[in-house]
């Protein structure tokens, strides 16, 4: 397992946020405290829907970018499947 992660959280309003981190627990605490991404401020509490580890930061960042290009329904499918798969490889 790597120490680079792409995660998806569901905001209280039902929207999804995708991000990269090297420490999932710390990053979720930042979102909860309002010090995470600007998008998530005031949208908590959050539910961690999906988290995938990568061996390199480059792989994780490519996957994050590819996921952010997907529609909400496609992101919901990833959550249903329970894994991110090789989204970056398919999109790039």
What does this structure look like?
The chain is α+β, with helices and mostly antiparallel strands. The chain has a single domain, classed as GIY-YIG endonuclease. It is 39% helix and 23% strand. The protein has a three-stranded antiparallel β-sheet, with helices on both faces. Strand 1 (4-10) and strand 2 form a beta hairpin.
Offer a few descriptive terms.
three-stranded antiparallel beta sheet; 4 helices; disordered C terminus; 92 residues; alpha+beta; GIY-YIG endonuclease
Put the structure in a nutshell.
This protein is 39% helix and 23% strand.
Residue stretches low in confidence (pLDDT < 50, at least 5 long) are 88-92
Superfamily (CATH H level) name:
GIY-YIG endonuclease
Quickly count the helices.
4
> Percent helix among the residues?
25-40%
Radius of gyration: 12 Å
Question: CATH fold name, please?
Answer: GIY-YIG endonuclease
Q: Helix and strand string, N-terminal first? A: EEHEHHH
Query: How many distinct domains?
Result: 1
Strand order of the largest sheet: 2-1-3
Largest sheet: 3 strands, antiparallel
Strand content range:
15-25%
* Assembly category: single chain
Level-1 CATH class name: Alpha Beta
SSE topology sketch:
Blueprint: E1 4-10, E2 16-21, H1 24-32, E3 47-54, H2 57-68, H3 72-81, H4 87-91
Antiparallel strand pairs: 1-2, 1-3
């Amino acid at each position: 397992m790597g120490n680079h992660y792409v995660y998806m959280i569901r905001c209280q309003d039902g929207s999804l946020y995708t991000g990269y981190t090297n420490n999932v627990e710390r990053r979720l605490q930042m979102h909860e405290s309002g010090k995470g991404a600007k998008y998530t401020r005031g949208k908590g509490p959050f539910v961690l829907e999906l988290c995938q580890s990568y061996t390199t930061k480059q792989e994780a960042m490519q996957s994050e970018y590819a996921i952010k290009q997907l529609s909400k329904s496609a992101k919901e499918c990833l959550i249903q499947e329970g894994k991110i798969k090789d989204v970056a490889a398919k999109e790039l």
